[in-house]
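hiii, so i know i said id send this last week but things got crazy w the move. better late than never?? heres the sequnce for the chain we talked about at the cafe, plus the structure i predicted for it. fair warning i was half asleep when i ran it
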Amino acid sequence: MLILGIDPGSRTTGYGVVALREGRSSWVASGCIRLQGAALAERLCSLLEGLEMVLETHAPDVVAVEQVFMHRNADSALKLGQARGAAVGLLARRGLPVYEYTPAQIKKTVVGRGNAAKAQVQHMICAMLGLDRAPQEDAADALAVALCHAHLSQTLTRMRPARGLLHATRRTRRGRLR
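okay and structure toks below
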């Protein structure tokens, strides 16, 4: 299975493609789409053109996208949301399954801590994928999104056969096991 991870941005969007075979993840491609143009509409058009090239080149089976979070600047968050929305719209139009993960979920899955620094994410991406050098921050973040999906989807696949067991051990309101 080929997983495309996307780290959306209003100036630079990172992408990373990871192959998941027999429970092992391997690097396929990664990079950054530099959004050209002064106006937001021009940058969104540039984003769509770049993503279409990535989709045509790598033909992923699924796509994982980082969710938007608002840190300090609402205007930046809105622009980021528009870039993310344009990307998700393109993916949906192509009929690709899209999965979304929060930055904390991604960092927790890849590094083990939900508040990990970008350098830690880059280090773990290199270690997990056997890369000689760290990719650019946006590309590393996108690879982390793809790896997050790879690991969480494998975990869910393993848990599905035991679904009946999960229901059998639920606690009641008073803390007793059923």
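btw The chain has one domain: 2-168. thought thatd interest u
miss u guys!!
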